[in-house]
Amino acid sequence: MGKAIRLSGLVILLAALLAPAGLQAQPMRPHSMLVLDQSDRRGPFYYQVFVGLRDAVSAHGHAPTTVYTESLDLNRFGGEAYQEDFRRFLEAKYRDRPIGVVVTIGAAALELALRWRPQLWADTPIVFALVEEADFKRLRPPASVTGGIVASKLQDAATAARAVVPELKTVVLVGADWEQQVLFRNWKDQAAAGIPGLDIVEIIGRPMPEIVERVAALPDHSAIIYTGLYSDGKGNYYPPSDALSFVAAKANRPIVVTAETFLEPGGIGGFVIVPSLIGAEAAGRALRILDGEAPESLPPSVIDAVKPIFNWRQMQRWNVDQASLPKGSEIRFREPTFLEKYRWRAVALATALLVQTTLIAFLLHERHMRRSAEVEARSRLSQLAHINRQATAGELSSSIAHELNQPLGSILTNAESAELILASPTPDLQEVREIISDIKRDDLRASEVIRRMRSLLKRAPFEKKEIDLNQTMREAFDFLKLQASARNVAIYLQTSPQTLRVKGDPVQLQQVILNLVVNSMDAMAKMPYGRTIIGRTEVNGDASAVISICDSGPGIPQDRLNDIFDPFFTTKEQGMGIGLSIARTIVLAHSGQLWAENQSGGGAVFHLSLPLAA
């Protein structure tokens, strides 16, 4: 017994030692995260941060994760009262929503989350993103808080400015007040320290009219470095990408930018922050924590979210050579050269004479293959239609058997009666003649049932010929009368007074009519009474004839009208979903149209349009 205890203890010890670091003794957390965005997520930059986060969460296959988002909008709103009201709002909103991890975007959001944590998310890990190194050191978050630090340097922006402006002498910093900057607040000290060989001019925290006026009159050998503007100084707020478009419209020098979302509004590029990478990195940390890792095992670190990216359009405007850009630079919005645009056309023109014979042979081969495919498609259509007719005949078999039993039973009765009469000493020959006449009539009746059945079941190739559409409708409705009677359905036929001559395969067109009528019967199967089907034929102008099958059923749901003719779509419990699809295929092969709609008074109506024969 002691040996068994020691062995089990050894197994437990080995399991503990082999468990991944950070997964030992970690409580199960709800798979949900609350994203606190210090700005407005509708802005391009913060939206791209969220896109990166969302895509990473969507790609996480271990467990579905609920993502809640809140925009603090601190660029436009602030103060202790606002912050306290927002805290109470979060407390009330998420009172019954367990949060597994809090993700903050920006240093201000992290600062508020740390302040609110004891009241709102005690013991809940925090993952931060978009926090500059100086802010990280200032906030000194505890070990249960982790995240990615973004390192942005004024020196890098100056390097990009030197790449786009030869003999650069002056850089002009344009942006909001340093205290409002999210990632570039530390640039104030870097600018004060200076950059060797460059003069630094600050247009920081100034109203938009003044900024626009000054950037329009900058000296040669200078460049603008844009960090972000959030308002015009008159109470109007906008995303910094919109502000950049105002500045770029008047600036007389290239604008080096600090974010990927500043490229299209007019920035020439630089060492830009890629917001989607920031969101993806934060999501990766948060998901690892939700999966069981301890935040202490994921120490904060500087992430690689700054990339050299440049705008080809602005490079062309300022005559910037690609060779002068930093190594590994990515070029966006590049216009293809003439050769890149028309290379294949030039090659095609140059080789046209050489491939002409091959092309003609290929086209002839394609024509032959297309004709073969059409023949094969018609054959397949005939096979599928034949199978559908067999299925329809199976549904109608009980009614057909009943219809045959009546004349056959009558023939048997008349034959027995004739035998009795003939066995009498003085047989009444006149009565025997009447009995024989009745037998002939019943025999013709049974033969007609068999003829209609054989016509439905025979497998013949698709063959168009001129037929009378009225007669085709009559034969189909005659075939369906007994089935309608067995289902308590009143069936009526109203044919056009004039002859409707069309070119088509009579068997397949009757099959379409049978499918539509049987479909209407099935639709009314659960109705206790009032089951009615009306078939009509009429002329539509001088070009086409129209068959209409109307029923008094529940109609077709409006959102299903476009789906009922799709293969394998059915609302029947035992349906295969091919009847209406085959009907539409047959009608299209006859150059016709088939569609359905609901009647204003209730019920559905199917319309079949076929071109009249010339």
Strand order, main sheet: write it out: 2-1-3-4-5-11
Which of globular, elongated, flat, extended, rod-shaped describes the shape?
elongated
**Overall number of strands:** 20
Distance separating the two termini: 101 Å
- Biggest sheet statistics: 6 strands, parallel
Helix vs. strand class: alpha/beta
How much helical structure, as a percent, in the residues?
40-55%
The total of helices stands at 16
The average pLDDT is: 84
% residues in beta strands: 15-25%
Q: Which stretches are low in confidence, meaning pLDDT under 50 for 5 or more residues running?
A: 1-25
Model description:
With 614 residues, this protein is an alpha/beta fold. The protein contains 16 helices and 20 strands. Helix 4 links the parallel strand 3 and strand 4. 34% of the residues are buried. The N terminus is likely disordered. It holds the Pfam family HATPase_c. It is an enzyme of class 2 (transferase). Its EC number is 2.7.13.3. Keywords: Kinase, Phosphoprotein, Signal, Transferase.
Summarize the structure.
It comes from Bradyrhizobium elkanii. This protein has 614 residues and is an alpha/beta fold.
Secondary-structure topology with pairs:
Blueprint: H1 2-18, E1 32-37, H2 44-59, E2 66-71, H3 80-93, E3 101-105, H4 107-120, E4 126-132, H5 133-139, E5 145-150, H6 154-164, E6 170-175, H7 187-193, E7 199-204, H8 208-215, E8 222-228, H9 240-250, E9 255-257, E10 269-273, H10 275-290, E11 301-302, E12 306-311, H11 312-317, E13 330-332, H12 338-423, H13 429-457, E14 465-468, H14 469-486, E15 490-494, E16 501-504, H15 506-523, E17 532-540, E18 544-551, H16 579-589, E19 593-598, E20 604-611
Parallel strand pairs: 1-2, 1-3, 3-4, 4-5, 5-11, 6-7, 6-8, 8-9, 12-13, 15-17
Antiparallel strand pairs: 10-12, 14-16, 17-18, 18-20, 19-20
Helix pairs in contact: 2-10, 3-4, 8-9, 12-13, 12-14, 12-15, 12-16, 14-15, 15-16
EC number: 2.7.13.3
Organism: Bradyrhizobium elkanii
Domain Histidine kinase: 399-614
